[in-house]
Amino acid sequence: MSQILRHQIEKIISLTDAEFEYVLSHFRFRKFKKHQFVVQEGLLVENDFFILSGCLKSYSTDANGKEHIIQFGLQDWWITDYQAYYDQGVATVNIDCVEETELLCLSYQNREKLCAEMHKIEHFFRKKTNKRNVALQQRILSLLSSSAKERYDKLLEQYPQLFQKVPKQLIASYLGVTRETLSRFNASSK
């Protein structure tokens, strides 16, 4: 399973076997059950999570109890409450498992240590952060300027595996539409 992490890192930088083993030694492996919280609003966020298997959702719940999904996380993706992680504060979002999930957990202290010791790893994390910032900007612009149908089509095109793993009501929440509207999109795409 650690090869998934190595493959992702080596898309950006190259590591010797010894370097990768050293990097890997700073992670902790954890398994989570379906519906188990990985990050919980109001609690300290100590880790960034690299997803080895499974699926997660990051969301906020408004005053009326409605869930607003910020992002999903699939194999080979990173997920956490980044504001709380970088500030070493408490979470403002929840992250829980849509299905049984295996993660590699990287504490903020271990990340900083690796970045200080290995310029290559600092470069890797900078590139990953840049990609995350671009993806976040694209998501915001899509929410502001695209129709719900356009957002659905783009999500289906970019991440077809989500539609196999994630219940339709969660995809509807992510897109900001009702379950019924999502069903109409589904019917018109066939």
Short description:
By secondary structure, the protein is α+β, with helices and mostly antiparallel strands. It has helices at 2-9, 17-24, 82-87, 108-117, 119-145, 148-158, 162-165, 168-175, 179-189; strands spanning 27-32, 37-39, 47-53, 56-61, 67-73, 78-79, 94-97, 101-107. Helix 4 crosses helix 5 and helix 8 packs across helix 9 (179-189).
Q: What this model shows, in words?
A:
The protein is an alpha+beta fold. The protein has a domain at 2-117: Jelly Rolls (Sandwich). It is built from nine helices and eight strands. It has helices at 2-9, 17-24, 82-87, 108-117, 119-145, 148-158, 162-165, 168-175, 179-189; strands at residues 27-32, 37-39, 47-53, 56-61, 67-73, 78-79, 94-97, 101-107. A four-stranded antiparallel beta sheet has the order 1-8-3-6. A four-stranded antiparallel beta sheet has the order 2-7-4-5. The N and C termini lie far apart (36 Å).
Topology:
Elements: H1 2-9, H2 17-24, E1 27-32, E2 37-39, E3 47-53, E4 56-61, E5 67-73, E6 78-79, H3 82-87, E7 94-97, E8 101-107, H4 108-117, H5 119-145, H6 148-158, H7 162-165, H8 168-175, H9 179-189
Helix pairs in contact: 4-5, 8-9
